[in-house]
Amino acid sequence: MAIESINPATGEMIEKFHTFSESEISNALDQARGAFRSWRQTSFGERGAALRRVAAYLREHKTQLARFATLEMGKTILESEAEVEKCAWNCEFYADNAEGFLADEPVATNAAQSYVSYLPLGVVLAVMPWNFPYWQVFRFAAPALMAGNTAVLKHASNVSRAALEIERVFRECGLPEGAFRTVLVPGSQVDKLIADHRIAAVTLTGSDPAGVSVASAAGHALKRSVLELGGSDAFIILEDADLDAAAQMAVRSRFQNAGQSCIAAKRFIVLESVAEEFTQKFVAAAAKLRVGDPLDRDIQMGPMARGDLRDDLDQQVRRSVAEGARVMLGGKMIDGPGSFYEPTILAGVTPQMPAFREETFGPVAPVITARDVDHAIELANDSQFGLGGNLWTRDLDRGRALARRIESGNVFINGMTASDPRLPFGGVKRSGYGRELSIFGIREFVNIQTVWIGPAENAPAQQTSTVAAE
């Protein structure tokens, strides 16, 4: 069975890959488990040096690596290059900070000494999506590897070349053979991988149905999991917002990566007093987007990653229009080769419409009018998702207070939602659980071990005995 990589800008096949046989999968798992035994014994200094070599390699070969991503999934070459740069930053961040994040923590008890240690778990399976083919992987891999774990990657099939390149980069930069392995398998193999005794934990970035499947398999196997799933982020514009800045950032937040991002702004909730003015500015700014060949450095939006995804998005637009939404910009597929869709803005969207109720994973922006601030927050929280969100106001005290009422893992005030190695990243509700990045992310895949050494000298007898059996 072969995996075909199709260029979404042209519809042409780029490359074919063979799916791994049972013996190849087993060999990869054996290698990862074997590498763990030695990798866990290395010092943070040794691991950090390896990750810094990876960062340097990514920067030196940014152009080539970015081209693979653009050809396989269609994002613009400038976006692909920025993605590779961000991966290098993440490697350096954890090379610099992992030892401090995972240092033993002394705790005062009745023992002579007691402390908490953070120890690696083993082989972590990463099930990753196509929309950020490098970043999603490195976002997980840098902290997991710095913690002393090893990794097996099951990437989305349409970015198989990127998946193999990531393995090659880690290997060529001096990580032990098997410390990071890619397996080219269909999604139907994931449950079997999770159940395998050589896998210690699993992380998934993907849709909420995929999250249900992975969480079920991990739960059945009693293995730790982290899920970063879909989003339908609210972009709330209050009456005192800087509308020009909000409109410009709305375009970037919605149409970057052709709108194919879990944390893209997806529901633009505007107070009615400024709704018409904001919508006009939003439409005017979005109309200037240059759509075309993503390898052209002047292009600002490429195709969607696959034809079936474009078809699904078009149906969401059509159903929303049939229910009363008004097309202010775009609204249809672009004729010709490739999976291109026009940058689209819909007005008059209401909560029962697909453009509001469902996650729109493409370049479509629904504008929803709110009566007042309380109604805006109500609309923002009226979603099964809770990944990120934006709030635009000049009153920062009010912004901070309102952020506490928004049901999401991230709230960005007067800016665009983005993941940052220095800050925890993750969601609530059907956007998943667990956190990536920062100190919280690196501690997801460790054994938090209590060490008690005693008894303390001259301690009263009752202090050295256990209070209860558990």
Write up this protein.
With 470 residues, this protein is an alpha/beta fold. Strands 12-13-14-11-10-16-17 form a seven-stranded mixed β-sheet, sandwiched between helices. A six-stranded mixed β-sheet has the order 7-6-5-8-9-19, with helices on both faces. A three-stranded antiparallel β-sheet has the order 3-4-20, with no helix packed on it. It has two domains: 2-229 and 431-451, Aldehyde Dehydrogenase, Chain A, domain 1 (3-Layer(aba) Sandwich), CATH 3.40.605.10; 233-413, Aldehyde Dehydrogenase, Chain A, domain 2 (3-Layer(aba) Sandwich), CATH 3.40.309.10. Helices cover 40% and strands 20% of the residues. The longest helix has 25 residues, at 77-101. The protein has helices spanning 22-39, 44-60, 62-73, 77-101, 135-146, 160-172, 190-195, 208-220, 243-255, 272-286, 307-322, 354-357, 373-381, 396-403, 438-442, 461-464; strands at residues 2-6, 13-18, 105-106, 113-120, 123-128, 150-155, 180-182, 201-205, 224-228, 233-237, 265-271, 326-329, 344-347, 364-370, 385-386, 389-392, 412-413, 428-429, 432-433, 446-453. α2 (44-60) runs antiparallel to α4. It is built from 16 helices and 20 strands.
Layout of helices and strands, plus pairs?
Blueprint: E1 2-6, E2 13-18, H1 22-39, H2 44-60, H3 62-73, H4 77-101, E3 105-106, E4 113-120, E5 123-128, H5 135-146, E6 150-155, H6 160-172, E7 180-182, H7 190-195, E8 201-205, H8 208-220, E9 224-228, E10 233-237, H9 243-255, E11 265-271, H10 272-286, H11 307-322, E12 326-329, E13 344-347, H12 354-357, E14 364-370, H13 373-381, E15 385-386, E16 389-392, H14 396-403, E17 412-413, E18 428-429, E19 432-433, H15 438-442, E20 446-453, H16 461-464
Parallel strand pairs: 5-6, 5-8, 6-7, 8-9, 10-11, 10-16, 11-14, 13-14, 16-17
Antiparallel strand pairs: 1-2, 3-4, 4-20, 9-19, 12-13, 15-18
Helix pairs in contact: 2-4, 3-4, 3-6, 4-5, 9-10
